[in-house]
Design goal:
CATH superfamily of the largest domain: Vaccinia Virus protein VP39
CATH architecture of the largest domain: 3-Layer(aba) Sandwich
Distance between the termini: 36 Å
Oligomer: single chain
Number of helices: 11
Shape: globular
Largest sheet: 7 strands, mixed
CATH class of the largest domain: Alpha Beta
Order of helices and strands: HHHHHEHEHEHEEHEEHEHEE
Length: about 270
């Protein structure tokens, strides 16, 4: 594994100008071994030769490193705490401080399921609130294809398994074998391509100034080496509004706690600085 994680990243950097050494060692090694199997390369030398002779294979390898798996309401406890505790707290706090908009960053949004789940909670809470709640969700991913899929908001029926029938009927239109997100749910969301390791911007340029009440950066950190995890956490922390919330994946909770964040509700994976 050590040889794989040294030789291939150097070659990718030379061919594509992209540094893949930021990825966690085991994840990177397994991704490379999977590409070796799919291209019928028996040895690392064989795969090394393939990468040098076929530039498109380097692109395939880079694509395989894109973290794209997600689902609606992926961690039920997290979304339950969001619905019953965090969102009401944000709304009440913003009302008392005359802050007229809830600002959310959905980082690494993949195909949009996480983002639309957040929008559903806010729309549903707003419907039961005396006044309309203004909110904007800035949803980003480093993959242009993922952002296109998220903007389209079209999913097969199997992707809606974690949604109640009430939510499916309320927020989706059926078209053949697929379900498309209704425009009403999309109108408070801005999708854009953004690399979390961008050195020029501390937050998505579409958000202008950050200052987020809530940042969701879930099921992403464990794919990176520790020093790069730290960069992501620092960037997110610097973009939070005072008393803002940072959400991570349930298997990443220790990473946040070791970085000085406090979990607001046990096992919820929702943190504050």
């Amino acid at each position: 594994m050590e040889e794989i994680n040294k030789t291939i990243p150097e070659l990718i950097l030379r061919i594509q100008g992209i540094d893949v050494s930021k990825y966690e060692g085991t994840f990177l090694s397994k991704s490379i071994q999977k590409r070796m199997s799919e291209t019928h390369c028996d040895t690392l030398d064989d795969y090394d030769c393939l990468l040098q002779s076929q530039e498109e294979e380097a692109e395939h390898l880079i694509d395989s490193l894109q973290i794209s798996y997600t689902e609606f309401f992926r961690n039920p406890l997290t979304f339950s705490v969001l619905e019953k505790i965090v969102i009401p707290n944000i709304v009440a706090r913003n009302a008392s401080s005359h802050r007229n908009e809830i600002r959310i960053w959905s980082a690494a949004c993949a195909a949009g399921q996480e983002t639309y789940s957040l929008a559903m909670l806010l729309k549903e809470f707003s419907n039961g609130y005396p006044e309309e709640i203004n909110f904007r969700i800035f949803a980003t991913d480093q993959s242009e294809s993922q952002i296109r899929d998220a903007q389209l908001g079209q999913y097969p029926e199997s992707a809606l398994n974690c949604l109640s029938l009430k939510r499916v009927n309320r927020w989706f239109k059926r078209r053949g074998g697929n379900y498309t997100v209704r425009e009403e749910l999309k109108k408070n969301i801005e999708f854009s391509v953004f690399d979390l390791f961008n050195k020029q911007y501390s937050c998505p340029p579409t958000s202008i100034f950050g200052d987020f009440d809530l940042i969701v950066c879930a099921n992403l950190l464990f794919y990176y080496r520790p020093k790069f995890r730290k960069k992501i956490i620092e960037k997110a922390g610097n973009c939070l509004a005072t008393n803002g919330y940072l959400i991570t994946g349930e298997t990443e909770r220790d990473i946040l706690m070791q970085s000085g964040f406090q979990e607001v509700y046990p096992q919820s994976a929702i943190f504050q600085i």
